[in-house]
Amino acid sequence: METTAITMRGVEQHQTHFRLGPIDLNIAEGFVTAIVGPNGSGKSTTFRLLLDLIKPTAGQIQVLGQKVGEGDDRVLKQQLGYLAEQSNSEDDSMRGSEKVAFVRRWYPQWDVNFYREMLQLFEVDDSLKLGKMSKGMRRKFELALVMAHKPKLLLLDEPSSGLDPIAWKTMIKVLHRYMEPGDRTIVMSSHIVDEVKRLADYIVFMARGQVLGTYEKDELFQRWQVLFVQTGGAAAQLAAVPGIVECTEAGSGIYRIVTEQSAATEQALQEAGHTITSRQSLQLDDILELLMRRGAWS
Ligand SMILES: Nc1ncnc2c1ncn2[C@@H]1O[C@H](COP(=O)(O)OP(=O)(O)OP(=O)(O)O)[C@@H](O)[C@H]1O
């Protein structure tokens, strides 16, 4: 694998009603990784651990080559940008421009032109008080705010929450452009299938505080397929076919097969004399559901 921007080793975080981990995770530098999982699966908790906003109960975390929670992390923090899931209501009475004046002092590399350009693209007026901005407007402002120092690692917790479809498209464009230099990394959580499809290079599935797996996006969609198969009555032979995750009878000797190794499954089906009548890609949420079911969690 490529150089890692983030490494988590045996990381656990215990709360009264929630346990995260143990998590072992590598996130590649120079790519977009999307963390996908149901509500309460631990995505935001993971972000907070990476930023040292909460401490792990066990394990070690490295971000951009530095151990989190050890030594002077000022230089590391200047290389990070974090968009929290929810706005901080304590900032409501501040104007956008006042918030910027406050934040930019921490970042010597703050790029005022880039910030202005983003406000223009998103059509945001930063002279408004943050509490007076609409939800989407504030989200766009905050996105510009966390990107203006051009961090090497951008952590975005549900970035498109509250954005209208036009603003959403602008955000996708902005993030694609952000990745162009090749040495930047984005880790984002998202519930929007289309967003993950358009932006992510890698997908990390999470559920109930556990990482279910990390997958290269194109390979994931290529491997996970639904095949409709005419068995000619020899359905029992399907049990020996590799990669099958689910198999249901669809009527008239046709079986609906979900596979996570489409190439191997198709080859074995053909060698056994079965006919594949059609195939479809599986959606991201269906893959997550099947992975969760396999973990016997749902
Ligand atoms: N079944 C549950 N019922 C109520 N709260 C839960 C449950 N599971 C987890 N939580 C809460 O969720 C928190 C962990 O979730 P976290 O915010 O990290 O998840 P998330 O994946 O970001 O969720 P979301 O998609 O809703 O933003 C824990 O602090 C815990 O309090």
Automatic annotation (TrEMBL):
SUPFAM superfamilies: P-loop containing nucleoside triphosphate hydrolases
MF GO annotations: ATP binding; ATP hydrolysis activity
CDD domains, A to Z: ABC_DR_subfamily_A
Domain of life: Bacteria
Record's keyword annotation contains Repeat: no
Keyword line: ATP-binding, Nucleotide-binding, Transport
UniProt-listed Pfam families: ABC_tran
Cross-referenced Gene3D superfamilies: P-loop containing nucleotide triphosphate hydrolases (3.40.50.300)
InterPro entries found in the cross-reference section: AAA+_ATPase, ABC_transporter-like_ATP-bd, ABC_transporter-like_CS, ABC_Transporter_VariousFunc, P-loop_NTPase
Stretches assigned to the ABC transporter domain: 1-233
Keyword Nucleotide-binding carried by entry: yes
Protein name: ABC transporter related protein
Species in which this protein is naturally found: Paenibacillus curdlanolyticus YK9
